[in-house]
Backbone:
């Protein structure tokens, strides 16, 4: 794991002590890390676009296989130090800590969640990469963040790609009015 990312993760965990109404809760962290894939994916979808910095840091840690379970509770492990994903406090990391396992479906959903959040990045390259990740992976659940990103996008080529993804999301709806 690059040192720059590690420092960014620790900074995000530390700085996010005062969070918005969508702050990561212990129940959400547990639901994202433990259980059957369907339940974990549902928890990931429930968090949605309103994820705060601490939640995004936890999802990125899941993507990087940096989450372990200590007595059944998820922790983020960086350089052999464990951090509580909710409070940011350092916790003991026993040798009995278990790895959180992500199957291919979960990895794909995590990548899509990170890409969806990245649509609002100030960096054009990050937004472009997010669009590439989401191509072919959109559904009606991603409609709100796609519309938000489309409204904010200033780069014409990216606006065009966002409009295409929005159309694909609308076509995936069960609602005939949205599909039209």
Residues:
């Amino acid at each position: 794991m690059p040192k720059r990312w590690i420092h960014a993760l620790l900074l995000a965990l530390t700085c996010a002590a005062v969070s918005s109404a969508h702050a990561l809760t212990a129940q959400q962290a547990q639901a994202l890390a433990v259980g059957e894939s369907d339940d974990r994916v549902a928890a990931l979808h429930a968090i949605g676009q309103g994820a705060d910095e601490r939640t995004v840091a936890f999802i990125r840690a899941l993507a990087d296989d940096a989450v372990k379970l200590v007595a059944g509770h998820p922790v983020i492990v960086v350089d052999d130090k464990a951090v509580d994903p909710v409070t940011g406090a350092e916790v003991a990391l026993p040798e009995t800590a278990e790895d959180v396992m992500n199957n291919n479906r979960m990895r794909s959903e995590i990548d899509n969640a990170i890409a969806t959040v990245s649509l609002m990045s100030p960096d054009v390259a990050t937004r472009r990469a997010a669009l590439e990740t989401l191509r072919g992976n959109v559904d009606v659940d991603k409609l709100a963040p796609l519309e938000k990103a489309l409204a904010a996008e200033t780069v014409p080529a990216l606006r065009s790609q966002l409009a295409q993804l929005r159309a694909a999301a609308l076509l995936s709806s069960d609602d005939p009015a949205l599909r039209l």
Summary: The first helix runs from residue 3 to 15. The longest strand covers residues 73-78.
